[in-house]
Amino acid sequence: MAPAAMLTMWLAWLCACVGGVVQTPNKEGTIAVLDGNLHLEAPDNGRVLVAGVDVAHTAKVVGQSLEELRSELAAERARQREATAGVVRLVCDVATTNGAPLFSSMQHLVGVANDAVAFSVGSEQYIAAAEAGGETTVYRWSNEAAELQTVQHIVPPRGNTQDVTPATAVTHVAANGVVYLVVSYDHRPPVVYSAHSNVFFFAPHKAVILGTAAEAAVKAVGAFVADDEAFVVAAVKTSTVVFKLQASSSDSVSIVDTFAADDISPAAADAFGLGEEEFLAVAQTVDSLSGSSGTKSLLYKRTDSGQPFTYEPVQEFYTPGATSLQHFVIDGVSYLAVANNFNGSTHRDSAVYAWNSVTFRFDLLQHISATEAVDVAFFEAGPRRFLAFAQRSTSSSSQSASPVYEFRGGLFEHVFDLQTNGASSVSPLSVNNNHFVLVTNTHTNSTLFKLHTACS
């Protein structure tokens, strides 16, 4: 079917879904921007939202005819394969049921934790929490009990010492039927634990990811799947190292690429695709040794499709003391949220960037008032889209509010504060159309919050 005919059918379907606001979609119309969104204005003055088109691209089509728009939309779809043009979303109220808050605390997990990650194996939902006592506790959601229940305590190999080594971070990746947890520890190299989906129990896969015990500044900061293989991104002192995990324990690690970070410690990484290209975003924080401030995070592009593949830097972001970042997509547009913390002298706002399909760069969309953020996570609850920040207070009181923002009208608006105590990470979890956020705390037990929504 020709693109023009497809668009005509889509417009007719969309108009029917919204109650026939535009009765004659086949006639000529013009384009207008209203409240930051792209609209089609028909001859009868009706208006329909044209979703899934990059807002930065709208200036090129303002005032064009419907026939010209068809060509523009077809080109835009080719640039953004994940575009969701024409999706009609329900309108949800922010409020509540019988005066209840947007989020409520429903479960406390025993133990002080520095990080956590949510993941699924088949239909089961899990949380792994890296604890200050050294263990990593794996929880599984119980439908019967409607709560997280402990299924395994992962104890790190002691080596030549019996000292307790705090688990500082945990990340997850799965490929070829193997589920990996990569746990970072204070003053020792990370450990890879693996489990097969048919016998789900984590056991040490490789005790040392990179380097020796003398290289204490090793931390796994991200993981991803590419070409059906599992990869982990690690911060090794002031360099970022990408390496591949092998299913065979005899040859379990191979380095893919190494790139220096200019004496700045990598803090987090996220890999994602944009069209036919593959990217890796790396958040860089203030280096405790050099005291560098005003740091820049980097966007790398994968340069070839073979292995070992390499990355080249394509964009820098001013991110003072960045601690975490995440890529996500809303209505076909890619975004990058960065949690900022400290630039060496003052706490700074976090930020959200939007992909510009004309310049092929991320542009600053807005600043977020999360000035002591240590983690950020995007999640969806039905038609609603949220950003949650874990915020750790540096004041004499460890009590802090970890803010939640909702995407509305092209921007994120503050909608709620989760009450936390030295928050260290935030992990969304969705089970049976119920949505939760786990916040790990460094001063008290971690808390699982439930989201309450009311849609019309």
SSE diagram, text form:
Elements: H1 3-17, E1 30-34, E2 37-41, E3 47-49, H2 66-79, E4 92-93, E5 103-109, E6 113-121, E7 124-131, E8 136-142, E9 147-154, E10 167-175, E11 178-185, E12 188-196, E13 199-206, E14 218-226, E15 229-236, E16 239-245, E17 253-260, E18 265-274, E19 277-285, E20 296-302, E21 311-318, E22 322-330, E23 333-340, E24 350-356, E25 361-368, E26 373-381, E27 384-391, E28 399-408, E29 411-421, E30 423-431, E31 434-441, E32 446-451, E33 454-455
Antiparallel strand pairs: 1-2, 2-3, 4-33, 5-32, 6-7, 7-8, 8-9, 10-11, 11-12, 12-13, 14-15, 15-16, 16-17, 18-19, 19-20, 20-21, 22-23, 23-24, 24-25, 26-27, 27-28, 28-29, 30-31, 31-32
Outline the structure in words.
With 456 residues, the chain is mainly beta. The protein is built from 2 helices and 33 strands. A hairpin with a 2-residue loop joins strand 18 and strand 19. 41% of the residues are buried.
